[in-house]
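Let us work through a complete example step by step.
Step 1: write down the sequence.
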Amino acid sequence: MKKKKLIFAVIAVLVFSFATAAFANTAIKLYLNGEEIQTDVDPVLVNHRVLAPVRAISEALGMEVTWKNNAVYIESKADVNVNAKADDCDMRIQLLEQALAPKDALSAVTSWAEGVKTMNGALEFAVMSPALREENYAYFAELNWVTGTSSPWIESYEITEVANINDEILRYEVIFNYTDSTGYEFSERKFITVKKFEDNWFVSSIERVAIKGVITKVTLDDKDEISSIFVEDHSDEPAGNYKEGTAFIGEETKIYKGYSDTELDKSVLAEGTEVEVTYTDGPMIMIYPPQAMAKVIRVFDK
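Step 2: predict the structure and record it as tokens.
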């Protein structure tokens, strides 16, 4: 009886071995939704795993397979098409911006003001300098390139040249006149610096001047470094929004020589120095006179 069991066991092993060999020698076919996937290399069984060409399976699933830098990249064709369309769109926008680039300073500031009036962030962005674009891209993108509000809205604007620094830098004052459905009216003033870049002109700075006047007090911190200045405007018609105020000096505060891009050290801020202060958009202590962090301080020769 034991001998018969042994014979049967041997026969079973041989049958299983023949079956495995026969399966291994049989071509493995791949199917997707009932349809056979044609491959240039037959799938094989190795260590109880089926190895099949990734390109054939990926393309059958509607994917795009590419080989770059010794690596295989698999992307959906929809993504590839979207990326291609995005690249095409970017190129068209770039060419349009080049074609519409302002050829003179007034055209640059006018295009920018029109963009603000019509809430067209793309137009505002198109006439900005490279540095200003980099600074404001995230802001425009977050707004989906639509700026401003439906109410109040800008009814009109006035542009006045206030400084001709040199042949490549001009300064303008832009007054936006607002209204709303109740007929309430008010104005907002901004100062725009326009700079020439090769053959075109672009807006290089946009400032809402808080105070333009003379430093009457300098405050030092415990390290004897300037921490704030107090500025007073003694003119009959203030150039800024306030007649006087405190400007705190922080790490992000930029100090420039006049309307140029030349940066200065805060040590130049002394009593009697004429400056133009732009506050940041951050918190402001609204007790009068106002106190806020300075975003830009422009220093003028005495």
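Step 3: interpret the result. The first strand starts at residue 30 and ends at 32.
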